[in-house]
Amino acid sequence: MIRIKAGVPRRPRPRPRARRPLRRALALGLPTMWGAIAITYKLTCPLAQQTGLGARIVTSAVFFAVGTGLIVQVRRSLLRELRQIRQIAGAAQNALLRPLPPRLDGLNIAAAQLSAERGAVVGGDLYEVIATEHGVRVVMGDVRGHGIAAIGTVAAVLGSFREAAHDEPDLEGVLRRLDRALARHLRERARAEHPASGALDPDSQVAEEFVTVLLLEIGADGELRALNCGHPWPYRLSGTGAEPLARADPLPPLGPFPLPTALPFVCCGQLLPGEALFLYTDGAEDARDARGRFFPLRDVLAKVVAQHPLPVPQSVLGSVFTALLRHTGGTPTDDVAILVLRNDRRPASTPSGPQGTAHSATTHPHPTNYPQRNGV
Q1: What are the pLDDT digits (tens) for 219-228?
Q2: What pLDDT shows up at residue 204?
Q3: Which of 122, 126, 188, 289 is deepest in the core (most CB within 10 A)?
Q4: Neighbours of 99 (CB within 10 A)
Q5: Taking the CA of residue 329 as centre, how many other CA atoms within 13 Å lie in the half-sphere pointing to its CB?
């Protein structure tokens, strides 16, 4: 970017590129030098031609020094490449799963994910929180499989949600956009893997992929609406404990089956000031210890709430991950993602009805535009 000062444009400074050829020369020159020293010693040094014990010891020491130098140089090169790969992976993670702001439209937010694939910084879990004119919209999803193979599907679903959350007036439109984006992504994958077929083979592995998705909309008054496609219902954390947000049967996951014609959202009451939502992927509940016992997620949440009646998202996140890693011995077998949101908005002067009950809407929901907050 060119900066302008006193009306005169300044040219951007060229990046120093002299270091790259120097590093390449060192990477190739040092091993060559060590090898040349060893060959020169063997061919020209009179001591290397002798067969006595002392001569053999000296020769062995020379070749040991040469070998050590080569190993050190190769190790440095590999560590340098590893640092570069980690930087690229970190940039990819920030672009794919963008760090969430600690506060958004009166909500306190904390989120983290743990990949089951060693060395991977992203996996098959996805989440996003966006403030829109329709309310704060949240997505939590889980792609079939885990690790690096699921990254493309995560990118397709998240990219579609980030556009649809602003464009669509209701959650039904958002979910249908995600479904179309996933179908298009799977067709492109199948075409890339099997160019001759040109279509999605029902018997291929790509055709068996699916994504569980939970969509939430939090209105300005804390009213909660949800659409759930095969995902675990989140927990509501309050001073009384941890309870499931809803008990309605979810829709099938996205991918294998078409969405039904009618998509009534689930009304989940209100998220009152001071209450929090705990969203997670099934890797948290399905984690097992050495004896095969499942992770007692609800009991852990109840204990956390008992210790801190006003749940702090960062503390809840840390306590659950600590207990999860202790339960699995530090080696979870599936990706785990957790998202905690607490309502820090000012309490309304008049309550707008009971909260805590969930039922399917009987009529098609009408879009509601809530007033913007904090300029969002």
Answers
A1: 999 999 999 9
A2: 61
A3: 126
A4: 8
A5: 7
- Return the exposure string of 5-36: e unless at least 16 CB atoms fall within 10 Å of the residue's CB, then b: eeeeeeeeeeeeeeeeeeeeeeeeebbeebee
**CB distance 11 to 2 below 8 Å:** yes
Whether this model's pTM surpasses 0.85: no
Question: 263: left (phi > 0), else alpha (psi -120 to 50), else beta?
Answer: beta
**Residue type at position 260:** P
151 versus 238: the higher-pLDDT residue is 238
Contact yes or no for 268/358 (Cβ under 8 A): yes
